[in-house]
Amino acid sequence: MTDIITRIEAFEITLPLPQPLRLGEIRIPNREYTMVRVCDDSGHVGTAYGLARNAPVALTVLKTVKPHWEGQA
């Protein structure tokens, strides 16, 4: 049996660091991560995350991956 992808979710979270990182003049007070969750019609769920570094990764997944993969086997 082939499972059908029923839902793809993507969102970003920001986690504050206990102390800001300093790289020369650059101050990094938090870390930004993108979370992606894929669900199928059998109830399986896959979750992944990655460091986003202020890039619009979740938006890119929702605009480019979701339309092509949701509803596919």
What does this 3D model show about the protein?
- The chain has a three-stranded antiparallel β-sheet with strand order 1-2-3.
- The protein has one helix at residues 57-69, and strands spanning 5-23, 26-40, 45-51.
- It contains one helix and three strands.
- The protein is of the alpha+beta class and 73 residues long.
- Helices cover 18% and strands 56% of the residues.
- The model has no long low-confidence stretch (mean pLDDT 96).
- A hairpin with a 4-residue loop joins β2 (26-40) and β3 (45-51).
- The radius of gyration is 16 Å and the shape is elongated.
Write a concise synopsis of the structure shown.
Helix content is 18%, strand content 56%. The protein has 73 residues and is an alpha+beta fold.
